[in-house]
Amino acid sequence: MLDSIYMLADTEICKRIASKIKEVRLKQNMSQVELADKSGISISTIKRMEDGEMKNFESLIRILRTLGKLDVFVPLIEEEQLSPNEYYELVRKASKPRRKRASKGYVKTKKEASEW
Length: 116
Prior knowledge:
Elements: H1 10-27, H2 32-39, H3 43-50, H4 57-67, H5 74-77, H6 84-95
Helix pairs in contact: 2-3, 2-4
């Protein structure tokens, strides 16, 4: 089992993802040509991706969508829920009256000095 993905080099991560994509494709009994047709990506791009050469993120998304594995990105696109305290602070800050700046035409008049 993988201890930490952060210990792997980027190229190793790409190779492992590529291997998994190929494994899923083969389990679904799909050829590279079929995957290319269904995803709208060229066969050469599919071959390069399965060799670990991933240069286009959009192509990766299209392949994962076609293979039914797009849900791996769910944690990245979900909006985080606010805790009750965070929500309270957000509402409190929004309801505070804001100071207003003087308009540009405002001129401060000098008080006349008293004669005493």
